[in-house]
Specification:
The structure is a single chain. With about 450 residues, the chain is an alpha/beta fold. The protein has 2 domains: about 150 residues, 3-Layer(aba) Sandwich (Rossmann fold); about 230 residues, 3-Layer(aba) Sandwich (Rossmann fold), CATH 3.40.50. The protein has a 7-stranded parallel β-sheet with strand order 9-8-7-10-11-12-13, with helices on both faces. Helix 9 crosses helix 10. The chain is globular. The relative contact order is 0.13. Bound molecules: nicotinamide-adenine-dinucleotide. The site of nicotinamide-adenine-dinucleotide (NAD) has 27 residues, from helix 7 and helix 13.
Length: about 450
């Protein structure tokens, strides 16, 4: 069933960013969600200087690496100078007392942060086997980052990198993830951490077409987020196999034609879905590098009224099918060259949602699966991650009644719903060599949705 409201239509945001609407919103003190800057190929990474805050060898080395990207790098702020980004390097923390100087230095420059600006912290995760003081200092960054993301306005975001011990702030794996967080590709990622380790090594990356030569499968590609993923992976250079149910055949063919990919009509719950996907990839391309498990369904009902059909179908599509397909992938010789799996979870799988025990079970299950699959892929230089979208403007969310939808789409730090392209950009990043150090992560694309974390 289709809604009459076009997916992605957020007329309030458009209204308060134009002439009379802007004046009215300001006078009445209404929220003014910003128009987010989104990625366009060829646009500069940042539209102004980047301030690198932090003492120690790591901060200096990182500043040097950013200079090599031809960015305008500052080690000290000049009050009043507009900044496009602030990077706070906190990789050597030993005690919470050490936070004051670098964090307040970053804070003093926040007024100079341009709209759609970026703040990125670089720190290390606290570990149970650490002394209490460094563990406290490291975990303190969590609270700083999440509060700062809620403080920023005008489309600016704050996100963090958590570097495993031994990964330097200027290591290729760090830089690959940092570039994503600084870029317009992460427009709807806010208040989140990415863990960076050493499962693979980011090499030289063709920045215009980072997926050149790769073969990617996207399930549920006929519409919504899946169609956006297929388009984005193709834009980044991948040959895309677009998968969806036979009933969506026309839409699927249209997407596949548009991106010069191929369409494969498969119900992913079929027992041989994995084998059919592999056979198609082998026949058409002789390789398979990326699998994006995006297909998903909702069948909402309070648990008190839940019937078997609703429960079973959601589990079958959203998690059991992924598990079975992954088993086939792991058993195949085709899927062995730095393979990438990205699974679409949901903030419902993290925070829960009334009426969605079945859906939340499946989406939380995806997170469990991803964490347990990461070591299985590491041996072949591969990675597996989950992306958890919050409120995204699609046909799925356009069906939500108006008042509920309007509240749900504003309940995040960016005060708006994300676009399918925002989820797609995060997935394209995780599928690329830039994310060679990122595995077993759950990356929320939710504008820092106020539920969950
Ligand atoms: P959608 O309903 O618009 O599209 C889902 C696609 O998956 C459809 O084309 C459908 O035909 C396909 N599909 C369903 N069952 C299938 C099966 N058995 N085999 C093959 N294909 C199948 O949904 P969407 O909003 O684009 O969501 C895409 C994914 O993102 C889903 O996993 C969803 O749970 C997740 N998600 C969406 C939101 C949101 O706000 N829209 C938020 C969080 C997570």
């Amino acid at each position: 069933m289709r809604s009459r409201s076009a997916p992605g239509a957020d007329s309030y945001t458009a209204f308060v960013n134009r002439g009379f609407g802007r004046v009215l919103a300001r006078r009445l003190g209404l929220p003014r969600p910003a128009i987010l800057r989104r990625y366009t190929p060829g646009a500069p990474l940042l539209a102004g200087p980047v301030l690198v805050v932090g003492v120690g060898a790591g901060a200096d080395a990182l500043a040097g690496a950013l200079l090599a990207w031809q960015l305008d790098v500052r080690r000290h702020a000049t009050p009043g100078e507009r900044l496009a980004a602030i990077v706070v390097v906190l990789d050597e923390l030993a005690h919470p007392d050490e936070l004051s100087d670098p964090v307040r230095a970053a804070g003093a420059s926040l007024r100079d942060l341009a709209g759609n600006g970026r703040v990125v912290t670089i720190s290390r995760p606290a570990a149970a086997d650490q002394a209490p003081a460094p563990a406290a200092a490291r975990h303190a960054v969590d609270g700083i980052l999440r509060s700062l993301a809620k403080e920023l306005r005008a489309g600016s975001t704050a996100n963090g990198l958590m570097l495993a011990d031994g990964v330097a702030p200027d290591a290729p794996n760090t830089l690959g993830a940092l570039r994503f967080l600084l870029s317009a590709r992460s427009a709807f990622v806010d208040g989140q951490f990415l863990s960076v380790g050493t499962p693979g090594q980011a090499g030289a990356i063709d920045r215009a077409r980072p997926l050149d030569g790769r073969v990617a499968v996207v399930t549920g590609a006929a519409r919504g987020i899946g169609a956006a993923i297929a388009r984005t992976l193709a834009r980044d250079g991948a040959a895309v196999i677009a998968v969806d149910v036979p009933a969506a055949g026309d839409h699927l063919a249209a997407v596949a034609n548009e991106i010069r990919g191929t369409a494969l009509q498969v119900d992913i719950t079929a027992a041989d879905a994995g084998e059919r996907i592999l056979a198609h990839a082998a026949q058409r391309h002789g390789r398979l590098d990326i699998v994006v498990h995006n297909a998903g369904i909702t069948r909402d009902k309070l648990l008190a009224n839940m019937d078997a059909a609703r429960w079973d179908s959601v589990i079958a599509v959203n998690i059991a099918a992924q598990l079975r397909i992954n088993e086939a992938l792991l058993a195949s010789d085709l899927f062995t060259r730095s393979p990438r799996i990205v699974s679409v979870s949901s903030t419902s799988g993290i925070a829960g949602n009334r009426g969605q025990t079945n859906y939340a079970a499946s989406k939380a299950g995806v997170i469990g699966m991803v964490k347990a699959t990461a070591p299985l892929l590491a041996g072949r230089g591969g990675t597996v991650n989950a992306v958890a979208p919050g409120f995204i403007e699609t046909e799925m969310t356009a069906r939500i009644p108006f008042a509920t939808r309007e509240v749900a789409r504003r309940l995040n730090s960016l005060q708006q719903g994300g676009k399918p392209a925002d989820v797609a950009e995060a997935i394209a990043f995780l599928a690329s060599d830039a994310a060679a150090g990122v595995t077993g992560n759950v990356l929320r694309v939710c504008g820092q949705n106020l539920v969950g974390q």
